[in-house]
UniProtKB/TrEMBL annotation:
GO terms for biological process: phosphorelay signal transduction system. This is Response regulator. It comes from Candidatus Thermochlorobacter aerophilus. It holds the Pfam family Response_reg. The modification 4-aspartylphosphate is found at D55, D244. PANTHER family: STRESS RESPONSE REGULATOR PROTEIN 1, TWO-COMPONENT RESPONSE REGULATOR-RELATED. The keyword Phosphoprotein applies. Keywords: Phosphoprotein. PROSITE patterns: RESPONSE_REGULATORY. Gene3D superfamilies: 3.40.50.2300.
Amino acid sequence: MQGEKLSVLFVDDEPYVLESLRELFARRYKVFTTTSGEEALEIVKNNNIAIVVSDQRMPGMKGVEVLRAIRELSPNTMRLLLTGFADVDAIVDSVNVGEVFRYVKKPWDVNELTAILLLAENTFLSKQRATESGYKTTTKTPDPVPRRITLPPAVLQELRRRQDAEEKFFQRVNERLKQGIAPEKLLENGSGKPKLLVVDDEPSVLSSLTELLADRYEVLASQTADEALRMLEQDVLIAALISDQRMPSKTGTDLLIEVSSIAPLIPKILITAYTDVEDVVRLINEGQIHRYIQKPWDSRKLKATIAEAVELYKERLVVYLAEREKFGRTFLEYETSVQDAEQERQEDKPEKIELASKLKALSEVRKKKL
């Protein structure tokens, strides 16, 4: 059924928060709510859930634990962590355990939360098209969804930025394919080893990582973020990027975010001796970090993390290429326009103003409780 809504699940131990979220999003989505992490898993098992938004601090299962379990049950479901706490462990775990799409702080801005859900929706639809292509099926078939959606200008701008980066990236990939290289071999160079790019301003760290990883990979080393960007410009099919955080001139966070405009699919791993909460949140929301690892690292776990990242990248490349062959561009196949988005916002404006006031008041009440 062409007009059927996508399903969204909200998990929060405060019933009044769930009531407000349902009221805000029921017009666009089929909304499920629960105050229990265990019940959330049952909902995901029995329904095709496109997006899950979970609070972090709840009785029983914490939000990160819920998202981790949902990732195993339904890998294509988009996962968002929503919390009012500056919880360092939760933020780091949301990267390394839950693999969240976005991290949203309470009290949230209604327009920002709406835009994030729309971005998650578009990404889910992209995954759905890959599933429909028959090349890769990682979860059960989602509910039928409309082919035409209207998006706010800010969301359209973000999607178009992603699409432009993808188009440039795949132009470079097609050059390799024309040389007769099979999609599954794109990340391997002449030696048969995938390339890794390691960035750290300490030569001793670069030497240690090169020695550790040289048996399975061709390791490229750089002491500056700018040099690393130039290396990626020369070869966009580096299999993974591993970067330190605190470096002169440009931080690892800035590097990993900027890399997305050159190699949008590359797995990005941050290795650092510091836990910079705001930077990790920024990486989740802008850079799409694959893992966050603290120094001193465990060699066995680091090698396993990199191996997992490289295999995931290989799979994603094959799927994306197959998807593009069948559907064309990965993002924004849908007909959208600023005029449609503006009209939709104007229609929703009175309702959203009222809901925004209500949500703001509820958030303030909860902040006082905390």
